[in-house]
Amino acid sequence: MMAISTFSNQRALQKYNTRDTISAYALVGPSLVLLICLLIGPSLAVFAISVTNWQFGAQSFSFIGLQNFRELFDDRVFLSSLSNTFIYVAVVVPSVLGLGLFVALAIESRKEFQAFYRAVHFLPVMATLAAMAIAWEALLHPTIGLVTRLAVQLGLGSWNFLHDPRLVLATLCVIGVWQHLGYAMVLFLAGLKAIPSDLYQAAEIDGVDHPLDRLRYVTLPMLGPVIMFLLIVITLKALETFDTVAVLTQGGPENASELLLHTLYVESFQFFRTGYGAAMTVVFLLIVIAIIFLQAKVLDKRVHYS
């Protein structure tokens, strides 16, 4: 009798587990299908196209192996855009994090006009970047631009910010910092409000009473998760910069403002070298994955989550 009861329980448990498994697959199924269709499938397609000589709109193509990749690293334009992209990211990301934290601390320290300052700094995040790029083009015009005229009035001479190879990348970096500053500021403000005031009181009792010491020993450690998140997100946004280059400089002059995403677009959709553009996309994707993985691996050990 005991054996029959045990067998019945096992059958019931197996039936229950099978039903749970089917339910789990049914719930996960739509998301898995979308993931394959929207992420995994296109990524595999790009890898496949990168080893062909396919041109956009052509009816046929040939397998050429790694020829696109060999040509890529002999291409002066690509190497220039790769170098410019690394410089752009190296300037924009720490500047956004540093200034975002500074602005957040300044707003949090004063109660007057907090909503106004938050709105002013967050406006570039909400605005259409193409429209803002046109506004920057007017401000930086070499003859009638407000910034240029102000520089002349201050005795600094006339500056051609968007057409001088020595200035154009720095100008794009300034615009990039302006664009992302509000996003970092808002997240830092949220992080600052989440820090318990008891920690500051305890630190003061322990002799940590100087503002810089409180920042170093209390504020920054507690903002660790926010800093890590912002570092990854702002890095991705900087690597994806396209609009400002396309509207303001088109990669010129002399490829001084060429960034990877713009070069990829030009090769794929203006010169119709789709296989070559796909190879560039693969390199771009590998760079993004490597940078984000390195950041997450290094910072995760330094972040306090509680």
From TrEMBL:
Domain of life: Bacteria
TM ranges: 21-49, 86-107, 119-139, 167-190, 217-239, 275-294
CDD domains with a match to the protein in the record: TM_PBP2
One Gene Ontology cellular component annotation held by this UniProt entry: plasma membrane
InterPro entries: ABC_transporter_permease, MetI-like, MetI-like_sf
Segments forming domain ABC transmembrane type-1: 82-295
Subcellular location: Cell membrane
PROSITE patterns: ABC_TM1
SUPFAM superfamilies: MetI-like
Entry keyword annotation includes Transmembrane helix: yes
Membrane association type: Multi-pass membrane protein
Keywords carried by this UniProt record: Cell membrane, Membrane, Transmembrane, Transmembrane helix, Transport
Gene Ontology terms: biological process: transmembrane transport
Keyword Transmembrane helix: yes
PANTHER family (alphabetical): ABC TRANSPORTER PERMEASE PROTEIN, INNER MEMBRANE ABC TRANSPORTER PERMEASE PROTEIN YCJO
Family stated for the protein in its record: Belongs to the binding-protein-dependent transport system permease family.
Protein name from the UniProt record: Carbohydrate ABC transporter membrane protein 1 (CUT1 family)
